[in-house]
Amino acid sequence: MTSSRWVLLLRGINLGPRNRIAMPRLRELLAGQGFVDVQTYLQSGNVVLSSDLGPAELEAAGQELIAAELGLDIPVVARSAEELAAVVAGNPLGDVVDNPKRYQVTFLRSELAESRIQELAALAQGGERLVGRGRELYAWHPDGVARSKLSTKLAGASLGVPATSRNWTTVTTLAEMAAAG
């Protein structure tokens, strides 16, 4: 079986004093489990690697490895290089967004009901927009995320599925890294 390129997105690490994981240690742990071409981007839990495993197996393996070796319960969401390329190509708010740092994609382990997406969209204020497509929520926060009720809800654990958000700059960089491997 041929290895595929994957992106693993870890939720809520290295944000303040809790859930600290050094990226060199994370790369070492993943390589030690047989993952190939392991790379990290930034300090916020973005990993690009090659593996024969499927997405559910990768998510479980990553979460179990971090729990066993580092004692942390960290949700992991996986996307293939092709899936991440489709997220970038299918950008529904490209004609609205003018600052990639204020544009976020929330990666969900499974799709939300349309009614739930509408509940979230109702929290948008001051030009914010939310578009759900499959297992991704695209959110534009023109005034930033600091006081955004929508951003707070997307970052919380109340979505009902494991999820994690990345800004557009990180999403496009990870897509490029995954495609290059």
Any overview of this molecule?
The chain has 181 residues and is of the alpha+beta class. The chain folds into two domains: 4-80, Alpha-Beta Plaits, CATH 3.30.70; 84-180, no CATH class. It is 35% helix and 25% strand. It has helices spanning 23-32, 55-70, 81-89, 114-121, 149-155, 168-180; strands at 4-10, 36-41, 46-51, 76-80, 103-108, 129-133, 136-140, 163-167. The strands form two sheets. It has a four-stranded antiparallel beta sheet with strand order 2-3-1-4, sandwiched between helices. A hairpin with a 4-residue loop joins strand 2 and strand 3. The chain is globular. The mean pLDDT is 93.
What structural class do helix, strand and pairing data support? alpha+beta
In spatial order, strands of the major sheet run 2-3-1-4
Distance linking N and C termini: 17 Å
Level of helix content? 25-40%
Percentage beta strand: 15-25%
Largest sheet: 4 strands, antiparallel
What integer value in Å does the Rg equal? 16 Å
Which regions are unreliable across 5 or more consecutive residues at pLDDT < 50?
none
**DSSP E strands, number:** 8
* Integer count of domains: 2
User: Overall pLDDT, averaged?
Assistant: 93
Determine the number of helices (DSSP H or I, runs of at least 4 residues). Answer: 6
Inertia-based shape: globular
Order of helices and strands: EHEEHEHEHEEHEH
List the topology elements.
Elements: E1 4-10, H1 23-32, E2 36-41, E3 46-51, H2 55-70, E4 76-80, H3 81-89, E5 103-108, H4 114-121, E6 129-133, E7 136-140, H5 149-155, E8 163-167, H6 168-180
Antiparallel strand pairs: 1-3, 1-4, 2-3, 5-7, 5-8, 6-7
Helix pairs in contact: 3-6
